[in-house]
Amino acid sequence: MQVDELKEHISSYAVELLKERGISKLYPPQEEAVRRGLFSGRNMVIAIPTASGKTLIAELAMIHEVIRGGKCLYTVPLKALASEKYREFRKWSDIGVEVGISTGDYDSRDEWLGNADIIVTTSEKADSLVRNQAGWIRNISMLVIDEAHLIDSAKRGAVIEVLVAKLRKINPSLRILALSATIPNADEIAEWLNAELVESEWRPIPLYEGVFYPGKILKLNEGGVIEVKAGRNVESVVKETLEEGGQVLIFESTRRNAESLAEKLSSVVRDYAEDCSDLAEEVLIENEGEMSQRLARCVRYGSAFHHAGLLNYQRELIERAFRERRVKVICATPTLAAGVNLPARRVIVKGIRRYESGMGSVFIKVSEYKQMAGRAGRPGLDSYGEALIVAKTRNEAVEMMERFVLGEPEKVTSKLGSENHLRFHTLSVIAEGIANTLEGIEDFFSSTFFAYQNEFTMRWEIQRIVLQLEKWGFVRSDGTIVATEIGDLISRLYIDPLTGYIFKEAARRFDNLTEMALLHLICRTPDMELLYLRKSDEWVEEEAYAFRDELTYFPSYYSSEYDWFLREFKTALCLHDWVNERDEDVICSKYGIAPGDLRRVVETAEWLFHALERIMEHHGNGLSVEVGRLGERIRHGVREELVELVKLKWIGRKRARKLYNAGIKSLDDLVEKRSVAERLIGKRIVERVLAEHRR
Ligand SMILES: Nc1ncnc2c1ncn2[C@@H]1O[C@H](COP(=O)(O)OP(=O)(O)OP(=O)(O)O)[C@@H](O)[C@H]1O
Fold first, then answer.
1. Does residue 433 surpass a pLDDT of 70?
2. What residues contact 550, with CB distance under 8 A and at least 6 apart?
3. 133 marked among binding-site residues
């Protein structure tokens, strides 16, 4: 089908824009979606492989909806993906379609988005906008769920189903378009959504899958499994691809493996890559710690590693350099497969097992492997893509072939049934006034995918949770169930009610807490991601005893909670070093973490301090002022006296300290002692600061 045929549905202007993007003809699954009612207003589930054009299907449907006066919400699982989609959709502004993005603080309403036609956001942020009753949510006429198969995710899946159920309650005629990878039970998702299902295995570039073992590759071909000659090791397979002008994406199970393989491969890659010294320098712009140095050394020769320990700008830099074909090989942990779109000629899956606590080394899921394999083949550059699993022996290769290459991905199952998810969403359903009886709450949850998949009633579970919320003082029940003021606040702050309870109790009991006690308090909540304890971390216990009298909680050495407590305390100690201006690299090596981990801990702590401040305020507890100040220090990683300086753009914790020690404590001081400041932090930076803040 030619795109010209779409004029009546999306306008000739939109068709012209598509042509400018080089799209003149629809891919077969796209055509199928059109034929099956993409412009008819019915709900749809599109379950097709990676890179087969799902996003364009959504764009066509959204443009059609906007032309008819509708408003679309496009939800993705990660902030990075939201930015990627926002950049893509911005192109539609050329024909007058307003595109907005919302990924900021959880309790903001982002009212300015009232004017946007298409709003891109994460599922969590969308749910928090519903909780905070952003006015424009009522006007949403179409919901697009990207990566809908992530309903299966233990951490992020529940919010997708609850969001769907809520938005359908708000607007019963809401249209839903769910985009998913190929999964065996896409029909269940379609039936749950009352949607037309479009399924296809079509790919724009053929994908060949196989298993490598030293000397040979078992390949799946149209005629069956064949065996072809190959090199002795992964390096030789990589070399072969580079020789043919392709790029390689390698998945490893751990960060350490990814890093050391990238380092090892840099001596192979350097013969095929141009000089990337400029990129290596860029890697070190914000951080010169051990991990960044290793990354810079690899990148110089066109090889890189990619995992959650990198800083955001480093990840983006690597991804961009790979797209520009300067970086030729990326060794990544599996987080990359679920994230941004980064195809390569060859995908090598080296980490086919993963360590799971209590279970040891287990195979990854077939669906995870398929997600990685699906990254092979770069549209416009490669005529085919190839995915290879790495095995040690022929026997193992045969086993991998059967289990993964010929295996069927697992079914998607709802994760909403776990207590913490139900607790979290039950409070919001009551606070938003969606339901105010047990039957009403049950009725609400009966429209979720969980209820679709599970026949048993949730009544007892919900009753137990409501009783718990009542005991904590978050809901009141006398015939009808309503949220108390604090319950409503906790729902809007988007924290686990258990976190809310811990904070509320602290607000009730204490009017004086030390810096360390406050830091430890937020680390006691289920919303904080805790650092792990290493064997060499005995010092954590010693430090904990030193602070024993200050803390709000200190279990007995014999308690089953003692080890968990040490993890909480270690995390608090890390934040303590951060707000006391310990050097970032020193913190990373002391706590055994990477810069990206530190930033994540800091970001979560900042959010929790904001919530704690609001709850203290609500309780009329004067500690709220102190909590607010500490929150500000966490944001910037500084002692109290630097807060004013770091609020200035371009002034980070290091520059602020230099200025402060020279007697420059504010913007006024900076203006007055400009030449001193220029000597300390550079003329260009001072110019930038003054240009930004000159009154
Ligand atoms: N009909 C088409 N003709 C030419 N190129 C197309 C067409 N449809 C999509 N593309 C291009 O193919 C590439 C992959 O498409 P897209 O990102 O939409 O796939 P996807 O299925 O959404 O991928 P993912 O599974 O990663 O979300 C994009 O560069 C897109 O512009």
1. yes
2. 513, 514, 516, 517
3. no
| pLDDT value at residue 107 | 65
Nearest to 329 by CA among 373, 371, 298: 298
Backbone angles phi, psi at 414, to 5 degrees: -65, 145
Q: Measured between alpha carbons, how far is 393 from 403 in angstroms, rounded to an integer?
A: 15
ipTM above 0.95, yes or no: yes
- Choosing from 5, 24, 56 the residue with most ligand 1 atoms within 8 A of its CB, the one to mutate for a pocket test is 56
Gap from CA of 398 to ligand 1 centroid (Å): 33
Judge contact between 142 and 179, C-beta under 8 A: no
Give 111's pLDDT tier (boundaries 50, 70, 90).
Answer: confident
Atom from ligand 1 closest to the CA of residue 3: 1
Q: Which of ligand 1's atoms lies nearest the C-alpha of 147? A: 27
Closest residue to atom 10 of ligand 1, CA basis? 53
Residues lining ligand 1, judged by CB closer than 6 Å? Answer: 23, 25-27, 30, 50-56, 341, 379
Tens of pLDDT along 519-535? 999 999 999 999 999 99
Residue nearest to atom 25 of ligand 1 (CA): 50
With H, G, I as helix, E, B as strand and everything else as coil, classify residue 357.
Answer: coil
Mutate which of 23, 55, 59, 201 for ligand 1? The one with the most ligand atoms within 8 Å of its CB, which is 55
410 φψ region: left (φ > 0), alpha (ψ -120 to 50), beta (else): beta
The dihedral built from the CA positions of residue 32, 38, 44 and 46, taken in this order, carries a sign that is: positive
Question: Atom 30 of ligand 1 has which residue's CA nearest to it?
Answer: 53
Cβ atoms of 633 and 643 closer than 8 Å: yes
CA 85–ligand 1 middle distance (angstroms): 12
pTM: 0.91
How far is residue 520 CA from its own chain's centroid? 25
At 152, which helix (H) or strand (E)?
A: none
Contact 208, 384 (CB under 8 A): yes
User: Which domains, from first to last, does the chain contain?
Assistant: 3-199 (3.40.50.300), 207-405 (3.40.50.300), 423-493 (1.10.10.10), 498-636 (1.10.3380.30), 641-693 (1.10.150.20)
